[in-house]
Amino acid sequence: MKSNEGYINIVSVMQKYFDQAISGNWSYNPEHYEDGQVPISVMAQDLLTTYKLGWKTSYYQNTYDSKKDEDEPAHPVGFHDNVPEEKPINELEDEACESCII
Asked: What is the residue range of 55's domain?
């Protein structure tokens, strides 16, 4: 999303029907902003808007970062080829805890 406005509005409406706080989050993609940087003024405006509309709790301001370390895989972790293969329980090392042996 290029803006958090829709998300902020939805959480604001939902918040009215909860007796406790909803922890709302924002996400920003620097690719949508000049020089690839999210302006603090945009984040501050989102924060002020959430309070104005009745959010009780704001949690994270996440920023998508497309930068990768040199040894990082080309696709995100979680794909099947990055998951270590699990051993059958009878092939586990002998260093099992007492409750595992029972």
From this structure: 1-66
